Amino acid sequence: MGNAGNAGSPPGTGAGGAARFAVNQETVRQLSLPELAAACGDLGVAGVGLWRAPVQRYGVAQTARLVRDAGLTVTSLCRGGFLTAADPAGRRRALDDNRAAVDEAAGIGTGTLVLVCGGLPPGDRDLYGARERIADALAELVPHAAGCGVRLAVEALHPMFASDRCVVSTLGQALDLAERFPADRVGVVVDTYHLWWDDRAPAQVERAGRAGRIAAFQLADWCTPLPAGVLLGRGQLGDGSVDFRFWRELVTAAGYTGWTEVEIFNEALRARDGREVLAETLERFRAHVL
Amino acid sequence: MGNAGNAGSPPGTGAGGAARFAVNQETVRQLSLPELAAACGDLGVAGVGLWRAPVQRYGVAQTARLVRDAGLTVTSLCRGGFLTAADPAGRRRALDDNRAAVDEAAGIGTGTLVLVCGGLPPGDRDLYGARERIADALAELVPHAAGCGVRLAVEALHPMFASDRCVVSTLGQALDLAERFPADRVGVVVDTYHLWWDDRAPAQVERAGRAGRIAAFQLADWCTPLPAGVLLGRGQLGDGSVDFRFWRELVTAAGYTGWTEVEIFNEALRARDGREVLAETLERFRAHVL
Q: Residues near A266 by Cβ (< 8 Å), separated by ≥ 6?
């Protein structure tokens, strides 16, 4: 497994590298899975990133059948992770949940499980210890994931999420964790929303690509002011500060040939017609990424 | 000028290094300057960090007299900066404003002007270009600042401010800028709120300290959820995720012997009695920093 969860060349764009558009389900969460599959069919979108909760609600086997019948590739499943619990019971629960996530990923036919690794436990201030617990948990999960043909994809989250969602804040840290394991077992996610500000990220993309560890490439724009809680402030492509061509060229130069998955959490987009948002997102992708 | 804006040894604590408490005016912005001076006198607080707007309202000469009569040291003036304008008129205005800020710093008797360097101009996505414009602006400002006995202190802001407030997001980037100039002309700010998440910051603190470039050490805690706009979400010491002893030991090991300035922007603190907040902050400093 190299710099992509799925093989194949970009159809119809002629741009090469990371030019294949996929939509992450959360970008258009107002669409049910069948609505999403239909909208993708109408617009010629061939890849979708899915989330565990809607997949569980619809059913893993039913989801697998739906995407197969629609001719869709599942580019990733979001998300496992939250591996920083310090107490034995919390740790055991997290490992069990992640093994279930691996099974779900395999069940819907994707080889990529995205991990949001977890923040600091309540009252804990030890970032270094939390990162070590993530490494320990990965070591426990890798054999099961490997047996299922699923690669774990460590995602660095923006530093504003360091305390409550993910103590892995840079691509360099994500690689430090991933490199303790074979590249076909643990990869990393390159997400522009989380990494765009970091002048050291380009060198880390190169490091990731050289080792064949780029498991997913995700896009969202950076817009301000951020909303309360900051989670739902991601911007539509072109609305913010991210230079997407720079990032596409970066991952392409690093050898990545997989999907480019647009993953935007945004209240305003969710309040609109989902098919219209998907069409707009595809249009923005052509205007700002290709 | 070394790792401190002001000379002298820590009184009464016996802790050495960065053990001298100072309060930044914005932590208790509900207090007028005379009220702040009186409250500091009552609590034995000997250092204050001031802001331009309240100083301008009260008057530069009057502020100088007030702090002198109260026996207070002004540890820093916040803030100059916003040096990223790409158009000649905007750039000229910024330079003029920063020269005025230098004059005000000198006027109130502090040798440290904190710079928040500025975000991306509207529609601009070039972080690298913006950082170069900051370097150019520093080169224009340094001679005037040097003539006034004022050191420019480049502050790295948390990456969540990269687009709209400061494209300098890490201590390493701040040092890359500062090191183009002599250490007694351009230093850096070490602020826990902005740097706490970064595993590369400790090595950069060492780099800064070795070169005598730590111009200010500021504290606030990291708390979530962040409020809308994220600016006023800084936490009282001990309420969040920052390990303050780790940071105090870090700057102390790097040779810093200056003030430790507590700078918290927090709506809830501002809504309370300012003298009570100052007393609480001092108490928290003793409990969580010393």
A: A27, A232, A233, A234, A235, A236
The phi, psi pair for A185, rounded to 5°, reads -105, -40
Chain A: nearest CA to B61, how far in angstroms?
A: 37
Beta-bridge partner residues of A166:
A118
Residue A190 near residue A209 (C-beta atoms within 8 A): no
Q: A130: which chain B residues are within 8 Å (Cβ-Cβ)? A: none
Instruction: Give the pLDDT confidence score for residue B135 in this predicted structure.
Output: 98
d(CA B214, CA B153): 8
The verdict on residue B105 lying in a domain is yes
Structural domain boundaries, residue B283: 20-288
Say if B14 falls within a structural domain: no
Evaluate whether A113 touches A154 at the Cβ level (below 8 Å): no
SS3 B87: coil
Does any CB of chain B come closer than 8 Å to the CB of residue A242? Answer: yes
Residue B36, min C-alpha distance to chain A (Å): 31
Which ranges constitute the DSSP H helices of B109-200?
A: 127-147, 171-178, 192-195
Sorted by sequence, the CB contacts under 8 Å of residue A92 that are 6+ apart come out as: none
Share of chain B residues as helix, strand and coil, in percent rounded to the nearest 5: 45, 20, 35
Residue contact A169–B242, C-beta within 8 A:
no
For residue B75, give the CATH number of its domain: 3.20.20.150
- B197 touching chain A per CB within 8 A: yes
At A161-179, the pLDDT tens digits run: 999 999 999 999 999 999 9
Nearest to B276 by CA among B43, B20, B72: B43
Strands (DSSP E) contained in chain B are: 20-24, 47-51, 73-81, 112-116, 151-155, 186-191, 214-219, 221-222, 234-235, 259-262
Tokens 């765009």 belong to A196
* Nearest residue in chain A measured CA to CA from B161: A224
Check: complex ipTM more than 0.85: yes
Number of domains in chain B: 1
List pLDDT tens digits, range A244-288: 999 999 999 999 999 999 999 999 999 999 999 999 999 999 999
